Amino acid sequence: QVQLVESGGGLVQPGGSLRLSCAASGGGFIVNSMGWYRQAPEKQRELVATVTSGGSTNYADFVQGRFTISRDSTKNTVYLQMNSLEPEDTAVYYCNGKIWIPIGGNKDYWGQGTQVTVSS
Predict the structure, then answer these.
(1) Is the distance from CB of 37 to CB of 47 less than 8 angstroms?
(2) How many Cβ atoms sit within 10 Å of the Cβ of residue 117?
(3) What number is the average pLDDT over the span 17-43?
(4) CA 25 to CA 23: how far, in whole Å?
């Protein structure tokens, strides 16, 4: 069974930085793409950034060059480096994996979420 485990959230002051990590485990799967979404209170979940197995990246407009997504395919791990954080970035950040498994084919997997709070 595939699991996504996130780490790296926390409290940071405006203008600060955080690095999120998400590792996929379980064995016997192929990662097609991984990415990050976020959900603020009373708002819908929204895309932050994604990276494919081929290394292509996609970012939401609000990232504006502040965030960088990267991956280590040898560890099935994706990272999100977040710089110049703003209070508006406060949300629960969720890792997503579009993963192929032998039984079931392509499926979406989600991590448990990690809280990011930007406040002075």
Answers:
(1) yes
(2) 15
(3) 94
(4) 6
Mean pLDDT of 62-76: 93
According to DSSP, the β-strands at 114-118 and 10-12 are parallel
* Percent of the residues in the chain that have a pLDDT greater than 70, as a whole number: 100
Question: What 3 state SS string does 49-99 have?
Answer: EEEECCCCEEECHHHCCCEEEEEECCCCEEEEEECCCCHHHCEEEEEEEEE
* Whole-Å CA distances, 11 to 15, 57, 80, 83, 85: 12, 26, 16, 13, 11
pLDDT at residue 40 is higher than 90 = yes
